[in-house]
Amino acid sequence: MERWRREQVFHDRQAWERATDQRRRGRSLAFDDDTYLDHETWVRPALARLGNVSGRPVLDFGCGHGMAAVVLARRGARVTAFDLSHGYLDEARNRARQNHVAIDFVRADGERLPFADQAFEAIWGSAILHHLDLATAGPELRRVLRPGGVAVFCEPWGENALLNWARRSLPYPEKGRTPDEQPLDQMHVRQLRAIFAGVEIQGCQLLGMARRVLKNSRLLSGLDWCDRQLLARVPRLERYCRYVVVTLRR
Ligand SMILES: C[S@@+](CC[C@H](N)C(=O)[O-])C[C@H]1O[C@@H](n2cnc3c(N)ncnc32)[C@H](O)[C@@H]1O
User: Which residue among 7, 88, 132, 184 has the greatest number of ligand 1 atoms within 8 angstroms of its CB, and so is best to mutate?
Assistant: First the structure.
């Protein structure tokens, strides 16, 4: 089976499980922006890197459940959102409807984009680049971004050997992984640097990654504070972080 097909089968199944759970609980898909922006520590500052999106054509790259697309549409962006999974697109369409925003949803493969050259001024992606072959997806991403435009991606980072071991070996909630996905590492950064004029990598959650097992909010705020101090003073510690925010400019 090809990579894109394995990804689609996996995510359609995951979306079907989510839809079954949502139906059983009778949950609405309406949400406020803070719910999305604060669900991980990197999301709010990363989205801010897109700047003022009002009136601008913005792409949600691998939109999954579509929450980012809805937040961007509520900020006035003209949003196109795509994903490979029919199931996730169904959820994202329902979410847009229940939140009363208009979004152009498209089923597409991130390695073969069905959009015109320079179609977007800003591109957002969360946990998607690490599902793709960047040698193919990178040039496509650059092609659809306007000169002067910005693309921001939040991705798992794979340079911490201990964390990689934990990802492989320890049981924890929401662990489901596709056989092809691979946290980004320096090799991927080199690939992106060969394609984009500007590539900035910012590490997120060093000690703060303890939130995967600890739930004490005061303790976690303290760890986040320590991370801010440590990463500002010793930037090479970013290598050991859980996630990175990748900012790409043409
Ligand atoms: C980990 S989920 C992230 C979804 C969403 N961006 C989020 O923030 O939750 C990865 C998403 O990428 C999609 N995906 C995987 N491979 C893809 C491809 N080649 N083209 C388009 N979407 C793909 C999956 O269907 C899934 O919705």
Answer: 7
